[in-house]
Design goal:
Layout lengths: L7 H6 L6 E6 L6 H9 L2 E7 L3 H13 L3 E6 L2 E5 L3 E6 L6 H7 L5 E7 L4 H4 L27 H7 L2 H12 L3 H17 L5 H12 L6 H22 L2 H15 E11 L2 H16 L3 E3 L13 H6 L7 E7 L1
Helix pairs in contact: 7-8, 7-10, 8-9, 9-10, 11-12
The structure holds S-adenosylmethionine.
S-adenosylmethionine binds next to α2.
């Protein structure tokens, strides 16, 4: 599946790319936003992070075809150069942004972007991530194999209240539905371990008591599968904790008048970003350039949503550091 960049122009236009600039793309993916940045960046540095080596390798190949040459390749870093720009490809979690930039000799930057989530072409590579693929797949869900805990570990090991909080915070499953879901997880594990996609689907079916053959209910079933699987993915990969850390670290890294743009796709991500923006607005440390009335974000146009259905839940937050 080809990944289509969301809010491509809007995100890149939120950056000031005139003159010599240092810009970071925290989530390289298929490289759509980074390529757009390179079209306008006259001179300077572009640093791209991605946990996926495939994404890094793929972008390296694209750049060499476009006239960049590899200057250095070591551990998790590839350095490329053309006659105007240096590109650093960093195969690391963006949570380590400050340390990784110091390693390449950069202490401050002019622009930062993050387009959260995972590329569509990457999702199929991670075991147990989707209810739609192999029901026999192990519930792993780790994007970074150095992480110690899998989704199966969480389902088998968390206590009642931790499970409940996870489904509430990351899947918006509240009240009776939350209690039923937690109850079914606990009763399943009394008889054996929860290891496969099939096990989790069965737990969800039991807890939501779906009736077979009802079309309306069928949609609800899919939505529920997807929310519960998403909750586990977020928990396994510490996505929201990492995002909070990212917002704080990037603010420190930005030069005065530097800008940051973040694209979110679900309410949990918004909950990590909005308090950061609000508290810095109050301190007059930033100006939120995506603010429209009471909302702090802009959405994709109707045309973009028609062309790319994945963009329908996207929100773009941009700010300038004062
Ligand atoms: C939605 S895609 C980005 C798409 C990209 N903007 C484009 O235009 O092609 C998100 C990418 O961020 C990466 N990613 C997600 N969380 C990450 C993290 N904590 N650290 C590093 N990379 C991460 C994923 O591996 C994925 O490739």
């Amino acid at each position: 599946m080809i990944h289509k960049s969301v809010l491509l122009k809007q995100l890149v236009e939120s950056l000031d790319l005139s003159g010599t600039k240092t810009v970071v793309d925290c989530t390289l993916g298929a490289g759509g936003h980074s390529q757009e940045i390179l079209k306008s960046l006259k001179s300077g540095n572009l640093i791209c992070f991605d946990l996926s080596f495939k994404a890094i390798d793929n972008f390296c190949k694209i750049l060499t075809k476009e006239g960049f040459s590899v200057q250095e390749e070591k551990d998790s870093l590839i350095v490329l150069k053309n006659n105007k720009v240096n590109v650093y490809l960093v195969n690391k979690n963006f949570v380590a942004i400050k340390d990784e930039l110091v390693k390449i000799g950069i202490n401050s930057v002019d622009g930062i972007i993050a387009d959260l989530g995972w590329s569509s072409d990457e999702l199929i590579d991670i075991e147990g991530l989707s209810y739609e693929t192999d029901v026999e797949a192990f519930l792993d869900m780790r994007f970074d194999k150095d992480l110690g805990v899998t989704a199966a570990d969480l389902l088998n090991g968390l206590g009642r209240s931790e499970l409940s909080k996870m489904f509430e915070r990351y899947a918006d499953v509240y009240g009776k539905s939350n209690q039923n879901l937690v109850g079914e997880v606990i009763s399943f594990r009394k008889k054996g371990s929860i290891n496969k996609v099939r096990d989790l689907k069965l737990i969800i079916d039991r807890s939501f008591k779906f009736k077979q053959g009802n079309r309306f209910q069928k949609n609800e079933v899919y939505k529920t599968y997807s929310r519960v699987f998403q909750a586990l993915r977020i928990a396994v990969n510490a996505e929201l904790t990492n995002l909070t850390t990212l917002m704080e670290s990037t603010f420190e890294l930005l030069n005065e008048k530097g800008t940051m743009g973040v694209i979110t796709f679900h309410s949990g991500e918004d909950k990590a970003i909005v308090p950061f923006l609000q508290s810095n607005l109050e301190k007059q440390a930033i100006d939120v350039t995506s603010k429209r009335g009471d909302e702090l974000f802009v959405r994709p146009s109707v045309e973009e949503i028609k062309e790319n259905i994945r963009s329908r839940s996207a929100k773009l937050y941009t700010y300038i550091k004062l």
